[in-house]
Amino acid sequence: MGxxxxxxxxxLPYPYAFKVHHSMCTELLKLVYKVSKIFPEIExxxxxxxxxxxxxxxxxxxxxKAKHHLRCCCESSKLYLVITGDVIVSRYQRxxxxxxxxxxxxxxxxxxxxxxxxxxxxxxxxxxxxxxESSEEEAGKAMRELIQQSSKSDLVVNSEIKxxxxxxxxxxxxxxxxxxxxxxxxxxxxxxxxxxDHRKRSILNYLLFLLKKHEDLIxxxxxxxxxxxxxxxxxxxxxxxxxxxxxNNQVESSIGCGQSETRTELFSRATPPEExxxxxxxxxxxxxxxxxxxxxxxxxxxxxxxxxxxxxxxKNKVKLAHCALTPNISMKDLISKWCxxxxxxxxxPCIQASKLLDISINSIASLGSSMNDLNLPLDISDMSLxxxxxxxxxxxxxxxxxxxPIQNKDxxxxxxSYINMNQQDLKFLSGLAELPWESQCKMVEDVKSCLQCNDQxxxxxxxxxxVEPLLRFLRDAHDQQDRxxxxxxxxxxxxxxxxxxSGILYLHEDVFDLLSSFxxxxxxxxVLAIFEVLSGHPYCQSKITASGAxxxxxxxxxxxxxxxxxxxxxxxxxxxxxDDICSQIVSMECVPKLVPLIKNDNLSSYSVxxxxxxxxxxxxxxxxxxxxxxxxxxxxxxxxxxxxxQEHAASILLSLCSQHLxxxxxxxxxxxxxxxxxxxINGTDKGRAIALELLRQLRGxxxxxxxxxxxxxxxxxxxDSSHQTPExxxxxxxxxxxxxxxxxxxxxxxxxxxxxxxxxxxxxx
Length: 765
Known about the structure:
Layout: H1 5-10, H2 22-44, H3 50-75, H4 78-83, H5 85-107, H6 112-127, H7 134-148, H8 156-171, H9 176-192, H10 198-213, H11 215-218, H12 244-255, H13 261-269, E1 288-290, E2 296-298, H14 299-307, E3 326-327, H15 329-342, H16 353-357, H17 367-372, H18 386-401, H19 412-419, H20 437-453, H21 463-479, H22 483-499, H23 509-517, H24 524-534, H25 538-546, H26 549-556, H27 562-575, H28 579-587, H29 590-598, H30 604-614, H31 618-626, H32 630-640, H33 643-657, H34 661-668, H35 673-682, H36 685-707, H37 711-720, H38 726-748, H39 759-764
Antiparallel strand pairs: 1-2, 1-3
Helix pairs in contact: 2-3, 2-5, 2-6, 2-12, 3-5, 5-6, 7-8, 9-10, 19-20, 20-22, 21-22, 22-24, 24-27, 26-27, 27-30, 29-30, 29-32, 30-33, 32-33, 33-36, 35-36
Keywords: Repeat, Transferase, Ubl conjugation pathway
Catalytic activity: S-ubiquitinyl-[E2 ubiquitin-conjugating enzyme]-L-cysteine + [acceptor protein]-L-lysine = [E2 ubiquitin-conjugating enzyme]-L-cysteine + N(6)-ubiquitinyl-[acceptor protein]-L-lysine
Protein name: RING-type E3 ubiquitin transferase
């Protein structure tokens, strides 16, 4: 191997040298340059294991073949190159796939910084597109149709003239000089063709014959034409000291960055903030975590950094006190919202190299059969492909052998399922509907078992090969009332939603409509579990509400199944992060349904958390205050609940007291002062802060009462006059006075509460 970057650059052709297929050749040239540039680093860091050496050998071999393909497009006949355009596309695609395959294996065997560079290069490989230009495709089609015609046909001469004139015009072979260059290229190719390759030799001889026979007809009337379009495509010189890096920059400015048009347009509109990118990989983070230095990284990359024995921050080189990773939830939420806004999917970087190894490597092998379909009399279907097919066949066998996972002997069933279910096999779902029903059910069950063995296979699934076929299967299972099939189908969908976050974007409105229709069926447990997962994703929340599922979920709160009630509350809790959905939840009178659930030890924590979120809007606070027993149930949690429940309960009461004096009185009547005092002393930091603020609010209300004696009593008296006797009014006033006196004594003895005047703010309200 021993190839260094300088040597690699010297052997590469110049961009202006490509005779045809300029965009494809330039695209491959950029990839070859990038691989050549990083190759010495990979070679220096190569692992000493057999698989690492094998991957490095494959990378080197693919690199040499790609260079050979590029040289062919510089030296071969234009006419021959357009005739074999499909062959060249397949060769370039194959080179790209083998680059990705070998680099994917090497990525797991090198230091993390180099692995991040390789990861970025793999992204560039995946974005590379190879397509024929329309003029060259038209010329190639005309010449292939000419070759297909029988030589005995009376119309062959006219066909020859039309075809060669069209091809020559499209390829700018319209001057005597251009024809001379083309004939020399054909002759040079003939000199290199082996004696056994009769098909290729026949094609080249026929092309040479056409140029000699129809040269005068090809030349345009105006005589010598300007330089061909492709010769002026790159206004570059070829000085000996010109580096490929400089040429590559000019190529990129002429043709683009080498990515697909859609991808380029997308990221021109949506440039991610630098804060969203991992400092190691320089890509948008999928699972951001914070380390001891306060810097945020992608979990996978920083974990690899630590696994290599590093104890410093990769960004600022500060020595770390510890190597703990803390999820950066706020950053993850910001990235998620930004991705939804621009329709971008962030892939999981933890995808193993096994996914890369599943790349199809049969494109060249299948090329002969596709060319055979042309039924060419001169049989060009096998030209120049035999040696390539032979070399790639051995690589194919080696690659597929590496896909076999190592399992314990005790796990024979899973091993059998995994071995027989690679990425290619997963495409069966595209034709699932064509199988008999029993076979469909068995296949869905097998896939579920297979995916349980290897989570990384989830990232091979897409809308076309998984979601849409599975959706059809679930509809059919519903129509046939097959409960077992429904259960297996929804369990498979649950696994997909749980383990492939980026794949959730494949779920469209019809999926949520179907799920909503099953909320009153026998598979309600599975459907609720799916909704629980999906409700945590902002992308899905509006789709859940649009499907009408909220009504069914609200009704489940009245069910006799504690487990179903818990799932329903969790779904509403996730949805309550959206203020618009909060309004819908409150309008459906969910608050009264939560009151008895607050008293259930298994449901209280989720119920009070949901109420806490809902109380961010005015309608919910009114509903809580006006629902009989709601404030009392919340107040009880200040004594009986855990620390988190106490915090939520106090927060709800604080949101009420901050809005209305009457709400303060309702809270005071529940005798919450002792519990709040205890919480302000013994609670968590957050709990103490909430309790102190609530106590201050309540004391401000009492001070306000003292300044405006009888004000609250007069309001209460007017409100209750229609249904209270004088004796009852007198008793109520006496109780209120006694309660206020007791509270004043408590506040008087509390030195932890500094005085502050809340009267002004209360007057404003």
